[in-house]
Specification:
11 helices; 2-enoyl-CoA Hydratase, Chain A, domain 1; 2 domains; Lyase 2-enoyl-coa Hydratase, Chain  A, domain 2; 10 strands; globular; alpha/beta; 265 residues
Length: 265
């Protein structure tokens, strides 16, 4: 099953939704039109009667996402009050939708993940990249500043020195080095990307969905919190998780020495 949206589409693989950016002529460079399409796609994934329990984000063709679509940004920016305005009305809402997902998210990076495309890639709870993929903070090359939350994410993922190096020098970071730096989780052969990403996604989709959603929220919130606040948030999240049917099943399976059969409930 495939459902079309503006410059992207969603395909169902059982309980896994694959959201594919679909403008391969420009290596899936993200226009406001595409971003609006992706917002609609995420809403569909969350509300679909398919009961999706994991999301994979990838790009059609040779690239993941080559950044903002520079052939359309000036026009869109002029209509809406500048380049920064496009971030506020489109890109930021999409990034927040990814952050607030009630299911785990994997990004399958095929080829270039540049500019805001790198930010999209880093939104994954698990990030899998092909050996030929690379990451690029391209903004300084055209006289702009990093956006898409990258100045918040990068120092936390790779440290301040490497974050500034990536942004100031605007050099390509190959997938192998990104793995070495701890920026991503797996590197796979080019032809095996989606198989490997779907295998990981299936493990997550078979898991206790509400628990996984609470886990990802805890990690998203932790940089803002003091230790005491985080302890309290863990307690509250544990109380919610402890009321789910999956917790009951998990304990029962443990006592019976068998694999748990979680239903996401």
């Amino acid at each position: 099953m495939r459902k079309e949206f503006e410059r992207c589409h969603v395909t169902a693989h059982g309980s896994i939704a694959v959201l594919t950016m679909n403008h391969p002529e420009v290596l899936n460079a993200a226009s406001v039109k595409m971003v609006y399409g992706m917002i609609d796609a995420v809403e569909y994934i969350e509300k679909s009667d398919q009961n999706f329990r994991a999301l994979v984000l990838t790009g059609e063709g040779r690239g993941f996402c080559a950044g903002a679509n520079l052939t359309e940004v000036p026009e869109e920016g002029a209509q809406r009050g500048g380049v920064g305005s496009a971030l506020e009305i489109a890109y930021h809402p999409l990034l927040r939708r990814f952050r607030d997902l009630k299911m785990p998210m994997i990004t399958a990076v095929n080829g270039a993940a540049a500019g805001v495309g790198m930010s999209f890639a880093l939104m994954g709870d698990l990030i899998v990249a092909t050996r030929s993929a690379y990451f690029l903070q391209a903004f300084a090359r055209i006289g702009l500043v990093p956006d898409g939350g990258s100045t918040w994410l990068l120092p936390r993922l790779v440290g301040l020195a490497r974050a500034k190096e990536l942004s100031l020098l605007a050099e390509k970071l190959p997938a192998e080095k990104a793995l070495e730096w701890g920026l991503i989780n797996r590197v796979t052969e080019d032809g095996a990307l989606m198989d490997d990403a779907l295998k990981l996604a299936q493990r997550l989709a078979d898991g206790p969905t509400q628990s996984l959603a609470l886990i990802r929220k805890l990690y998203w919130d932790s940089p803002h919190n003091s230790y005491e606040v985080q302890l309290d948030q863990e307690k509250q999240s544990q109380q919610k998780a402890g009321k789910t049917k999956d917790f009951v099943e998990g304990v029962l399976a443990f006592s019976q020495k068998r694999p748990a059969k979680f239903k996401g409930e």
